[in-house]
Specification:
It is a single chain. The protein has 88 residues and is mostly helical. It has one domain. 80% of the residues lie in helices and 0% in strands. The longest helix has 42 residues. The two termini are 17 Å apart.
């Protein structure tokens, strides 16, 4: 790999880190909004336990979305950490 290629790789890696950072902050914001919506749904529900078959469908959907976004955030955080760790 010549110097130009190394510079391009570093620039692309830096761009990827910036994209991941932006995506992480957007996902965190979305997660906060969805959690607030979930809180409202659960407070309005007569059956606030997710294990109850009468638990609201909207709340169940919001809970699933929260779980999926949280998992995505964890994966992106791992990826960002790996990019910060120098390769052996």
């Amino acid at each position: 790999m010549n110097l130009h290629q190394r510079g391009t790789f570093r620039r692309n890696e830096g761009e990827e880190r910036a994209r991941i950072g932006t995506l992480l902050s957007e996902l965190q914001r979305s997660l906060e909004i969805i959690k607030a919506d979930l809180d409202v749904e659960e407070k309005q529900a007569q059956w606030p336990s997710p294990e109850d078959p009468r638990y609201p469908v909207a709340a169940r959907s919001l809970r699933d979305r929260c779980d999926n976004i949280a998992a995505t955030i964890r994966l992106l955080e791992v990826r960002a950490q790996q990019m910060m760790t120098p390769a052996a």
